[in-house]
Amino acid sequence: MSVRRSTVIFAWILLLPAVLYVTVIVAYPLVDTFILSFTDASLKKTTKWVGTANYDNIFNATFAEVIIRTFVWTAFSVAIKMIIGTFGAVMLNAAVPGRALFRVLTMPPWIVPMAIGIFMWGWMYNGQFGMISGLLQNLGLVSGPVAFLAHGSTAFWATIITDVWIGVPLVTLYMLASMQAIPQDLYEAAWTDGAGRFYRFRRITLPLLVPSMITMSMLSLIATFNSFDIIWILTQGGPNGDTTTMIIDTYRTAIGSKKYGEGAARAVLICIFLSIFCITYFRVTHRLASGESR
Amino acid sequence: MSQPAMINRYRWYELVGIYAGIFVFLSFILAPFVEGFLVSLKPLSLLFSSPYRFWPENGSFEAYRTMWVSVPGFARYIFNSFFVSFIVTAVVLALVVPAAYAFARFRFRGNGALLGAFLAVNMFSGAVLLIPLFRLMRSMGVLNTYFAMIVPGVAFLIPSAIWLLRTYMLRIPRELDEAAFVDGASHFYTLRRVILPIAMPGITVVAITTFIGSYAQQFIFALTFNSKTEYMPLPVGLFAYFGRQEVVWNELMAASFVGIAPAVIVIFFLQRYLVSGLTAGAVKQ
After folding, report:
1. pTM value surpassing 0.95
2. Which residue in A241, B52, B157, B228 is deepest, having the highest Cβ count within 10 Å?
3. What CATH code is assigned to A63-293?
4. Would you report the helix, strand and coil content of chain A in percent, each value rounded to 5?
5. Can you tell me the distance from the alpha carbon of B17 to that of A246, in angstroms, rounded to the nearest whole number?
6. Distance of CA A188 to CAs A12, A30, A195, A198, B1, Å?
7. So what's the pLDDT on residue B226?
8. Smallest Cα–Cα separation from A110: which of B132, B280, B213, B146?
9. Searching chain B, which residue's CA lies closest to the CA of residue A181?
């Protein structure tokens, strides 16, 4: 009995530094955000309790648009990431010469500091001299230069594509790993029964990948919802707010305009959405895990 | 016995299809790097000329020389980025190795809930907590120092590091540390002398991913908590190439490649490690 107690104490000693650290730097600010959201905190010296005023102010037509835009932006980005990432994984899973090199070449967008990749895209989208506009003109697809980041609809898609580009390597690696975890004898059995490659892919690989796809989509959803750097560097939420997502809007309000209270209310709203995703994620992965063991 | 080999033999049209697929996929991944590199070779006059020309005629490495001159602080930005990431990685490892071991080996009340809480932390971005973090940094008096980037940076990298390392440690046979414990070794001795050496590959992977993660997340914290050029990390420092009139694109791209080269070289050599470690962690989760 005393051994067990000492073991538990030892476990807690090991855990304490990490737990304390995260509590001070994440949990405390989370609580502070919640409290701030009920005040008129700004650069002023005094801070007054304003009740739910900040929340009342949020819910207007513009902000409803921001919320909807955030969800549409996230949904498209995650869907495209999953499609391209899984496609890449399927290709890189094939046992062909050069495979190891191709796998390494998938990683750069993930390894390189995000800002640098975004700068590169910024140039490619450049209206007058950028590569995409240039190629489209050279191919005769458009008559004049296209300033992708200067128009709402193209800027919206441009930020999505850059987000996809940054997220794809992780999806690919994860899906690749999931594919390799599929027992080889399943394929061998199917092969002995005369099943062709495409049939094996459709009947073995794809169904067994579904749980991983769901897990990865959930993780990707959370990361994408939180995406800040890409939009901020490319468009700062513009033009005319057409790429303003909730994170960008919160940053603008809180840090840009120094309206801490109003910004905090927006942050709380983001936290609520994130918590919903989080709970869904736990439920889904839990169900998948228990489903597998059955 | 030759079955797997037979399964994996491709017909010629299948090979063509696979290579075509890989080509399309990698084109998307690598296009910005190829274009960025070509831009770094072009003189500005060629960059800003119509019609667009893909290939850098009479290109040179001139921008790789001028970039050091036009932004004198550039070397400092690289140093800052590496320094911050290095410290962040060291602190994360110091906090995470014991915690991951505790999660992997001991059952105690609240084990699962705590593990879940760490995962939940992973889901909140720094942007959401920026205001209170700003106030916290200000009250600690560490705004405009390395601390302002290191302190929050560590917090957001702890959760995924714990999860990854715990998964790795779960695969180390329990008999090993139990035997040591039965032989009279203390828990601490067992951790240091038995577990740590075996877990080294896993710890290496966690160190690499933490380093990369720190490098990637430096933007928002540096942007908000630091306005001094001497402490600016590379991602924010690169904005120095945004001149008053126009962006000096060829130098910006040259600087980007210089900035990422060391990291890419290191990772290129460690990638085998990285892929196997990551995939082990990812699938078991």
Report:
1. no
2. B157
3. 1.10.3720.10
4. 75, 0, 25
5. 41
6. 48, 52, 10, 14, 11
7. 87
8. B213
9. B283
Contact between chains at A29 and B136 (C-beta distance less than 8 A): yes
Decide: helix, strand or coil at residue B135: helix
- In this structure, the number of other CB atoms found within 10 A of the CB of residue A187 comes to 20
Query: Would you say the C-alpha torsion B10, B11, B12, B14 has a positive or negative sign?
Result: negative
Q: pLDDT tens, B151-207?
A: 999 999 998 899 889 888 888 888 887 888 788 888 888 888 888 888 888 898 889
Mutate: best of B93, B128, B192, partner A, most A CBs <10 A: B128
Q: Which phi and psi (to 5°) does residue A282 adopt? A: -60, -45
What's the full length of chain A, in residues?
294
Please indicate whether, in this complex, the C-beta atoms of A120 and B36 are within 8 angstroms of each other.
yes
Q: What is the CA radius of gyration of chain B?
A: 24
Q: Which range among A153-157, B45-49, B70-74, B94-98 shows the weakest confidence by mean pLDDT?
A: B45-49
Q: Single out the residue of A40, A1, A7 nearest to residue A261, CA to CA.
A: A40
Neighbouring CB atoms inside 10 A of B243's CB total 11
Q: What is the DSSP string of A24-90?
A: IIIIHHHHHHHHHTTB--SSSS---B-TTHHHHHH-SHHHHHHHHHHHHHHHHHHHHHHHHHHHHHH
Residues 6 or more apart whose CB falls under 8 angstroms from that of B280 comprise: A177, B167, B168, B171
Q: How far apart are CA A243 and CA A235, in angstroms?
A: 7
SS3 for A220-277, per residue?
HHHHHHCCCHHHHHHCCCCCCCCCCCHHHHHHHHHHHCCCHHHHHHHHHHHHHHHHHH
